[in-house]
Structures are given as structure tokens and as C-alpha cells.
Amino acid sequence: MSLDSLLSTIILVSFLVTILMAVGSYLAYKLRERRRPSAEALGAGEESIFFERIPPDDAPSAVADR
């Protein structure tokens, strides 16, 4: 096998692997998006289950102290 054919085979295989990885990651993304709960399931009026809201401690007086 000559060097030219070896290098062209390596380039072809790496290109095909790249295309397969792109398709696989797109499919994984679509599956993950399908699993995501909707706004109705989370309860639109309720507090978020991911974050805890922390109110600022007396914000107007903190600005006046500067």
C-alpha cells in the first residue's frame, strides 16, 4: 500500500466518523429535548424547582452607604 492511498484512506475514514458523530449527537440532542418537561408539568405559577430566589438585603440603604 503506497503512502498516498494510506493517507487518503485515513482522511476518508476520519470524515465518515465525523459525519456519524454529528448525526449521533444531533439524535441525542433531540431525544434530550423530547424528555424535557413542559411548562405545564413544572407548574407555571409555582416556584422553580431548580433555583431558590434570594431577595437582596435592604438594597436602597446599601446604595446610600457608598
Q: How would you describe the shape?
A: elongated
- Give the N-terminus to C-terminus distance in angstroms: 76 Å
Give the helix/strand class. Answer: mainly alpha
Report the sheet-strand fraction: under 5%
Question: Percent range for helical residues?
Answer: 55-70%
The main β sheet shows up as: none
Condensed summary:
The chain has 66 residues and is mainly alpha-helical. It is 65% helix and 0% strand.
Structure explained in plain terms:
The protein is mainly alpha-helical. Helix content is 65%, strand content 0%. It has three helices and no strands. It has helices at residues 3-35, 39-42, 59-64. The protein is elongated. The model has no long low-confidence stretch (mean pLDDT 81).
Annotate the secondary structure layout:
Layout: H1 3-35, H2 39-42, H3 59-64
Characteristics of this structure?
66 residues, mainly alpha, 3 helices, elongated
